[in-house]
Each structure stands twice: as structure tokens, then as C-alpha cells.
Amino acid sequence: MTLSGKNILLGITGGIAAYKSAYLTRLLIKQGAIVKVVMTPTAKQFITPLTLATLSQNPILVDFFNSENGGWNSHVSLGLWADAMIIAPATANTIAKMSNGIADNLLTTSYLSARCPVFVAPAMDLDMFAHPATRRNIAALKNIGNIIIDADEGELASGLTGKGRMAEPEKIVAAVSDYFEQSNQLAGKTIMITAGPTYENIDPVRFIGNYSSGKMGFALAVAAANRGADVILISGPARLKINNSRIQRIDVTSAEQMYEACKSNFEKCDAAIMAAAVADYRPVNVSEQKIKKADNALTITLEATPDIAKLLGQQKSDRQLLIGFALETENGLANATEKLKKKNLDFIVLNSANELGAGFNTDTNRITILKKNGEKIDYQLKSKNEVANDIIDQMIVAANEIDK
Ligand code: PMT
């Protein structure tokens, strides 16, 4: 029983595929899950609460208040109760509300209150599914880390044939089971991740920095924590927030501070992933006062910052993994291969600073992984959350190699 003891909040919205939710509920119960069902008012037109209450062994939740006895269903406690929320079927309407944070029924408010992983199984007619507005809304949910269980192709309720059928209940249960199986993969491991830019002061009001937002590093931190790791996230100045009990965030500003934080934490880590865009140079002298504008040119002498990845590469033990990034604008493969060797990395993640949708401050990235054994893996353009999972998968492959 792969879902033994897991609290599953099943959200059902108003689409014809709601009839499949009865079978989905049964499968979840058979896998040992404790299931509570929350329905939108329209979903009740497609399947009766009585059927679902009987199968889930729990009363069905539709309204905020019970007008008979004044009892109320708390979306907050439902959101906190759930180990996973599944929304199946998810109509175009509910997906649009979810992606915009609209909270106008118990299902959408529970969704906004849920701290657990959320699985979304879209179901609608083919043209609705293919519409750019729906594509955009689904992509937005994916970007914030919801797990989309893609719709299937086939005959639709309209009589048309195409993509939009809800995934079969077996596929939905398998996706949730796989998630929980993966969530223990890194249990007991500590992973250090660097993220964001560094700022190197010139004077009290100016610095040398770069365009890194921290999105890639933060996505890696969440992906590692979701697999059960304890994460030490060392971040340069990034505007992102993170709220995960498995992630300890250490904020730094300069390359020197990032180095100090990495140095004092690396020994206790099983792996480190260096996703930060660390300044390679800093001013030799930092002016105590704001530098005044003058008529002639200004020269600032720069010196190298500590190459953190290289220094950790010299310190790392045989049991530790060190993973670096290479952000390139030209000769990507050659430059990344050189960095892989020079910094004694187990693998390097190559991405481009001048490719659309990749590199700095985007929600997506396209990477190539180069391993120290010469293996090369090319990936498609994906959300940074998905890219982060690909990198963690390869980190686990590398860890298994060490254990052999
Ligand atoms: O933060 P985002 O907006 O999401 O953007 C993500 C990213 C583009 C910053 C990320 O995907 C990325 O490529 N990070 C590494 C950027 C970089 O500085 O690459 P590099 O090729 O200059 O450095 C090579 C490696 O050495 C990197 O792992 C880097 O963290 C590390 N390094 C570099 C210099 C230095 N002084 N110390 C280091 O540890």
C-alpha cells in the first residue's frame, strides 16, 4: 500500500470526468490513503456527494457553512491536514482561478491554504485545452511547483476526438505514489546550495553585481527538500522568499561572505550545488565615501574573488559530490568542460546567458549536463522547477555511483 496513512484532499470540479473521481477515490483508499473530498458546487451536478462520501468514508465538503447547524468547514485546517491535494478533474475555469489566486469556493480557498504538493489533472474539451489562455494558466501552475498530470488524447464528451481527457485514475494514483516514494530519496542527506548574485561594493552606494534572480538555486533547494534532504541555502541578495522547514537559509552579500558561509558548512554536507552567479572580481579598494563625479575617466582596480567552487573542489572528500554551473555566452561545451576539470566537479550544468528563456531571471532554463566520465545529457527548455528535479535526479545517480 504505497499511500499508507497519507492524508489526501481530493478536489473535484464540475466536468463530465467527475464520474471517474469515484473510482479514483476507491483506488486511493485501496492504497491506504485517508481521503477527504472537497467539491465545487457545479461538481455536484455531475456526481453525487453521497457516492463520494460512501467511497471516501468521510463527509463531503462543499460549502463554507452548514446552514442547518452553523458548523463551518475551515479551508485552512483542510489545507494543513493534507499531505497531498489532488484536483481531478480540474476544469479550465478552476485552473484559471487557481493560477490567479481567486478564492471563491471551498476548493479554491483550500488550494490557496495547502502547504502540501498539489497534483492537477486537467479535463476539458480539446479547444479549451489548446487555448492559449489555458496553456498559460497551466504553465503558471507548473511554474509555482504544482504537478500537472497531463490530459490524455481520445474521445471527448463533446463527441470530438483530441487532447483533453482526464488522465486515468491509475495514472493519477501512480503519480502521487511516485512523489511520496521520491520524497524519501534524500532522507538523512544534507545538501548545500548557493543561489543568486553577489554584490561587490565600490562605495557606499554602488556595487558590481549581475542579473541573477536566485530562481534556479531556490528551485534546487525546494527540489532537494521535497526529496527529504536537509538543505543549507546560501543566497546572495535575492528578492525571493522561501518557507520550508527543511531549508535553512543563510543570506550573504559578497563573494567573500558566500565563501565563508560555504567553507563553514561544506564539511557536514553530502553534496553541494553551486548555482550562484558569483562575481569573479571586486574592487581592491572600497571607497568609504560616495565617489564624486569628475570630468575625467575613473579607473577602478579589481582583484579576483575567491573561486568558491574551486576551493571546495580541493577540499571535497571521496564521499562528497560537488556540482557546478557554467553560464556561457560562447563556446559553451569547451568552457564548461574546462570548468568541470579545473574545479574538480562531479558534473557541471551548462546554460546560456543569451538564449531566450534560459539563464538569468527567467522562469525556464535549458541545460546540458556534462559529467566527469564524459557523459553528456541535453535537456529541453523547461520550468526551473523541472530543471531542478532533473539535476537532483542526476545527483542521485552520481551518489549511487559512489556507493557502488
Ligand atoms: O538566478 P537565476 O536568475 O535563476 O539564474 C540562474 C543562473 C544563470 C545564475 C544559474 O543557472 C547559473 O548558471 N549559475 C552560475 C553562474 C556563474 O557564475 O557561472 P560561471 O560559469 O561564471 O561559474 C562557474 C561555477 O563556479 C559556478 O558554479 C559558480 O557558482 C562557481 N563560482 C564562480 C566564481 C566564483 N568566484 N566562485 C564560484 O564558486
Q: How do the strands and helices of this protein lay out in sequence?
A:
Elements: E1 7-12, H1 20-30, E2 34-39, H2 49-56, H3 75-81, E3 84-90, H4 92-100, H5 106-113, E4 118-122, H6 126-130, H7 132-143, E5 147-148, E6 152-155, E7 161-165, H8 169-182, E8 190-195, E9 200-203, E10 206-208, H9 215-226, E11 230-235, E12 247-251, H10 255-266, E13 271-274, E14 281-283, E15 302-304, H11 308-315, E16 321-328, H12 332-342, E17 347-352, E18 364-365, E19 368-371, E20 376-378, E21 382-383, H13 384-403
Parallel strand pairs: 1-2, 1-3, 3-4, 4-5, 8-11, 8-13, 11-12, 13-16, 16-17
Antiparallel strand pairs: 6-7, 9-10, 14-15, 17-19, 18-21, 19-20
Helix pairs in contact: 1-2, 1-8, 3-5, 4-7, 9-13
Question: How does the helix and strand content classify structurally?
Answer: alpha/beta
Number of distinct beta strands: 21
Provide the list of bound ligands, each named once: ligand PMT
User: How is the main sheet built?
Assistant: 8 strands, mixed
Overall pLDDT metric:
95
Point out poorly predicted stretches. Answer: none
Instruction: Describe the oligomeric state of these chains in a short phrase.
Output: single chain
Strand content: 15-25%
Shape: elongated
Helix content: 25-40%
C-alpha-based Rg, rounded: 25 Å
* Strand arrangement, major sheet: 12-11-8-13-16-17-19-20
Q: Report how far apart the termini are.
A: 29 Å
Count of DSSP-assigned helices: 13
